[in-house]
Design a protein that fits this description.
Elements lengths: L1 H4 L5 H9 L1 H11 L18 H13 L19 H14 L13 H13 L5 H16 L2 H11 L3 H28 L4
Helix pairs in contact: 6-7, 7-9, 8-9
Length: 190
């Protein structure tokens, strides 16, 4: 759900957010998670008009000055070597049989979140291997969501996008703690 929310907003997504349907489904999904974390306000309302939502998204995530947008949605913008980040992501994706759609950069947050969902749902040789893959991906490729959240908050956008970035960062951190704890149980450390 978060991956879809970070994609360019279409009219259907805007409508489901305006009616509260998206937020209700999100809260239901969050209620089913095995990890606990501080959600903050998840009853946020989106920009009232579809044009406003698109404009806010573009200004925040896609268009900027010489250095690009204030809050790019690509991990490579938060690392020292984007080409190395992309190579590592592609290796990760290939190893687990994950295919990225044409014309989509592999380091976009929506792609990384979709991949993480596949890791959680996918079959692995054993539970420990599955958890180690999740731990490694969270640590190597989703930790940047903390900086994304900080930048989004500093940009002072519409509360919908600020809440989305904050929730994502908190969820990534909580998932990392949960995975480390679960690995500790499987490895007999707790």
């Amino acid at each position: 759900m978060l991956a879809h929310a970070f994609s360019f907003p279409d009219a259907r997504f805007h409508q489901s957010a305006v009616t509260g349907e998206w937020q209700s489904r999100l809260n239901a999904a969050l209620d089913g998670l095995p990890c606990r974390f501080r959600r903050g306000a998840t009853g946020w309302t989106p920009p009232t008009s579809y044009d406003e939502m698109q404009s806010d998204y573009i200004a925040l995530f896609q268009v900027g000055g010489r250095r690009g947008p204030p809050c790019p949605l690509h991990e490579g913008h938060y690392t020292r070597d984007r080409s190395r980040t992309l190579r590592d992501l592609i290796r990760f994706y290939n190893y687990f049989g994950f295919r990225v759609a044409e014309c989509v950069m592999p380091d976009h947050i929506s792609v990384e979140l979709e991949f993480m969902a596949q890791l959680v749902d996918g079959a692995a040789a054993d539970p420990a291997s599955k958890l180690r893959a999740q731990r490694d991906f969270l640590r190597s490729h989703l930790a940047w969501t903390t900086e994304l959240s900080r930048r989004v908050t500093a940009a002072r956008p519409h509360p919908f996008f600020r809440s989305l970035a904050t929730l994502t960062s908190r969820l990534v951190a909580a998932d990392g703690e949960y995975v480390r704890s679960a690995l500790g149980v499987l490895d007999g450390r707790s």
